[in-house]
Amino acid sequence: MSRCWLAVLDSEPERAFAIAHLYSAEGAPGGVLACWRERAKPVRSALRCDERIIDPDGAGAWISLVLASAGVRLPFDDLAVQQARREVLGRPPANGVSTLLRDDSHLEGAITVARGPRARELLRDDPFARVFPAQLLRVEAGILGRVAPPVGPVIERYGAANPWPWDRFE
Hints:
Layout: E1 3-9, E2 18-24, E3 29-38, E4 47-48, E5 61-67, E6 74-75, H1 79-89, E7 96-101, E8 106-114, H2 119-123, E9 134-139
Antiparallel strand pairs: 1-3, 1-4, 2-3, 2-9, 5-8, 5-9, 6-8, 7-8
């Protein structure tokens, strides 16, 4: 089974599925956002993400990148995490949202993707920024796509590694 990994790096890695340069809200270079689709973690800082947000043909976007401090992680079922997820569902849909995980049951961050004239404004109030600190960044084309919003709540889980399907009921 391959997994989808996402990391912010200082420079482009030798091998990755998709790569795009990052810039601060003020326009300063902020490294690169890289994605890998493989079983093992490709670099120490990589976190698992929902592979549906990754698109090597995706347009440039603004992102809210929420990351825990080194060594900090919350159980995915922590009330603060669940409330952030509820708030995301109650807002107009972003172009993509994914939690970022190191293992099957702990949150270590989130990424929210937005495009359009109000993108920065929409990302300034990221519900996940109430859990961990957020950075507002611009990412070039070549890594992030658009994901249809879920058809209903995806908070329920049936086993730590198995979130309820967001787009269907089997």
